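[Automated response] Your request has been received and processed.

Submitted sequence:
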Amino acid sequence: MSSMRNAVQRRNHKERAQPAQRGKWGILEKHKDYSLRAKDYNEKKKRLKILREKATERNPDEFSYGMLSSKTDRYGRKLQDRGNPTLSQDVVKLLKTQDAGYLKTMIQQTRKTREKVEQQYLLDDQNIHTIRGGKEADDDQHIIFAGTVAEQKLLEITKRKQDPTPIVADGLHQPAKTNAIPVGQTLKRNTQMDHRHATLKKAEGLRASKQERALRKLRKRQSESQRSRLKALETRERDLLAAEQQLDHGRARMNNSVGGVNKAGIRWKIRERKR
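Generated structure:
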């Protein structure tokens, strides 16, 4: 009988969802969520009860010899040796000197790279590069200024488009013949030449426009890449300078040449003798 009852399809009981008007309170807590929260609360309650009992039954006169060697900070936290070897003051000063030398070297290297990239970026931004086609320009020759190699190609394409020199198809220039050519045949040949000239000019214009768009995109990507690299170098230089300043301050504190904050949190400073 029980097997037949289990074979019958039963209704799937679903848990109620969070009502729309209470959506600001988040997901509705289910029974399994409440069970976990109650279990965690009871465990913490038991732990607090045990600690409270230990504090009540504590013996103020309790003593052990480990208390003589152990130390605590001003917050009551126990200070324990981690097993690291203790370095002498001279060794620590030497290590800090080497760190300072390394930081100075890296700062100089980063500064030189940053200045070079910044100069290149400013030149590209202000169009300082002079393009002369790889040859020395004459005194009466017009000089074109461009920012990058991509812009140089773009200017060459623009100049080619504005060039008034006619584009003539191959094979159309034929040596003049001594015999006279009829007028109708001459007009027909001129019409064919004009048609071919217009077709070639249109094809070159489409090809030039595609190259212009590609070169503009290339120049934009190059500019963004240089800007990102310049920002990264500026951030690195600023971090290195801050690290060098902190290291110099630590070395000065070790030499007792400046003040600082001791382990008790008290600020102090070196007072020079009045003369």
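Summary generated for your ticket: The chain has a mean pLDDT of 76. The helical segments are 2-7, 31-56, 66-69, 89-126, 149-161, 183-254.
If you did not submit this request, please reply to this message.
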